[in-house]
Specification:
Methane Monooxygenase Hydroxylase, Chain G, domain 1; seven-stranded mixed beta sheet; alpha+beta; Nuclear Transport Factor 2, Chain: A
Length: 515
């Protein structure tokens, strides 16, 4: 264990005694989860034994304990022929300190315990039924598992360091235990990801196991995002002196949190290699989910994993900014605002890029019906208020500048070429972009899709009420694809050289096919 300030403060060395399980020692992982519940129950007792009692904090802790029991039931702890030795937990006994109006919470909590204990006997059955009796609830019958190999129920006295009499202030224990609980579940989440690494050796054969481990990790991260908000209940006038005394120690130093993130990235890189081996692209899989059901399922699970990781970072940002203000430095010297990038920037950028690629491809593939559903409902047709000019010099100036500015990707000057209510219909029959504000939206789409544009006028046909321009383009997309396409654009130009309408005759699917 590195002797970093955070590890020293939360007694990580003592906690680490419970973080030693692996895929062949499921009981150690279960013990890690039980340690977390013991810590929660201890914190509950601490609140109930001091005045004034914080009801919101109590409800948050009880919700967390229930969630932890559900998570432990989800995780794979089916240990054949083993049970915990019958025991009594001093911390679990704290439930009896609750008022009778918490009977519903106790009913659900103890029922969840017995559901878990049916999977592997935890050894607290008698105590849990005594708690149920205390709240006038019916006893839950249990099977007799005498004779099974016994496992020692965890003793968390060393983790809590309860003999220490020099806690800094009233919020010291809350701050410490909340992070200790987080470390337990970081560890369990890491184990779920490591199980995925093993199952990824054959994705098709292990698809159900992969789904199970992804979901377990997702649920763990959701719990952690809610759990950390327990710190919202701290008394700030007590926490801030503690924060100063703790300078240098922060949850941002959690090595397990970094590991959780790092393993996720490594796992995703493994998946990308497998896609390459199968000669499949991410876009191809997303576009054809029925053809690649297992692969699309894995992509969706990575998307959920990213959502859960981002949610954790977001909740941490909200918590921190609510407590010390968004302009502050954290206790290890990082700008709080720097957390924003953690939940905004894509974690699995290849998935993000593939979804954008598919979006662009679909935009062109179905460009001829763009906005059709809305257009039919709004019944709006743009009107040209002025007569089209017959002055060819004015027409040529407007049109030549129009294509030059598109090729230069100059949005501002291009929009200025249009009248106030001028519009572009691209392609003809789609919902038009009317007015300067909507024209800006249209041009932003061009800028985001094309890295370089080369629009070349082939010829012009002057008619009584408009002019038709035949053009060709060879342009480079944002992902360095070179596209060639052509079309005809019909313009109506006002007397003062402003574009009233630009109607584009072409099939955008030409671009989609090249993508």
């Amino acid at each position: 264990m590195k002797k970093i300030p955070y590890n020293l403060y939360i007694q990580f060395e003592a906690l680490n005694d419970f973080l030693k399980g692996d895929n062949n020692q499921k009981e150690d992982l279960l013990i890690c989860g039980l340690v977390s519940i013991e810590l929660s129950a201890n914190l509950l007792g601490d609140i109930l034994n001091h005045s004034p009692i914080n009801a919101g904090k109590i409800e948050h802790i009880l919700r967390g304990i229930k969630t932890q029991l559900k998570l432990l039931k989800t995780c794979d702890f089916s240990i054949e022929g083993k049970r915990f030795k019958s025991s009594t937990s001093e911390n679990i006994e704290n439930f009896k300190l609750l008022e009778q109006n918490y009977a519903g919470d106790i009913d659900r909590l103890t029922a969840l315990y017995f559901e878990l204990s049916n999977k592997i006997n935890i050894g607290l059955d008698a105590q849990m039924n005594e708690i149920r009796i205390h709240f006038n609830l019916q006893i839950i019958p249990v099977e007799n598992n005498d004779g099974a190999e016994g496992i020692e129920y965890p003793n968390i006295m060393n983790v809590l360091n309860l003999n220490r009499s020099d806690y800094f202030n009233s919020e010291d224990k809350t701050f410490m235990i909340v992070h200790q609980i987080s470390e337990c579940w970081f560890y369990l989440g890491i184990n779920e990801l490591k199980s995925l690494e093993v199952n990824f050796r054959n994705i098709e054969e292990n698809s159900q196991a992969i789904l199970h481990h992804f979901k377990a990790n997702y649920d763990i991260l959701l719990y952690l995002a809610d759990h950390i908000l327990l710190l919202n209940h701290m008394v700030l006038s007590d926490y801030h002196p503690l924060r100063v005394a703790l300078r240098g120690a922060s949850g941002g130093q959690s090595q397990q949190a970094y590991s959780l993130f790092g393993i996720s990235i490594k796992l995703f890189q493994n998946f990308l290699k497998q896609l390459d081996n199968k000669t499949k692209t991410m876009v191809e899989v997303i576009e054809n989910p029925n053809t690649h059901p297992v692969l699309i399922s894995v992509i969706n699970q990575f998307t959920n994993l990213e959502r859960a990781l981002k949610n954790f970072f977001f909740q941490h940002y909200v918590l921190t900014s609510n407590i010390i203000g968004s302009q502050s430095f954290g206790s290890i010297g990082h700008d709080i605002a720097s957390l924003v990038g953690k939940f905004v920037a894509p974690i699995f950028s290849e998935i993000d890029q593939a979804k954008y690629d598919l979006t662009m491809k679909t935009n062109f593939q179905y460009g001829n019906i763009a906005g059709k559903l809305i257009m039919e409902k709004e019944g709006f047709e743009p009107q040209d208020d002025e007569k089209h000019t017959a002055n060819r010099e004015v027409i040529n100036q407007a049109i030549d500048t129009y294509f030059d500015l598109i090729s230069a990707l100059d949005q501002e000057k291009w929009i200025e070429l249009f009248t106030e209510n001028g519009y572009i219909e691209d392609p003809l029959g789609s919902r038009p972009y009317v007015g300067h504000q909507q024209l800006a939206i249209f041009f932003k789409g061009i800028i985001r899709f094309f890295k370089k544009m080369n629009m070349r006028i082939e010829s012009k046909v002057f008619e009584e009420g408009s002019v038709k321009v035949y053009w060709k383009s060879e342009s480079t997309t944002y992902n360095d694809k070179i596209l060639t396409y052509s079309g005809v654009e019909e313009f109506r130009i006002s007397e003062d050289g402003k574009i009233m309408a630009a109607l584009v005759h072409w099939d955008p699917a030409i671009i989609s096919n090249q993508l």
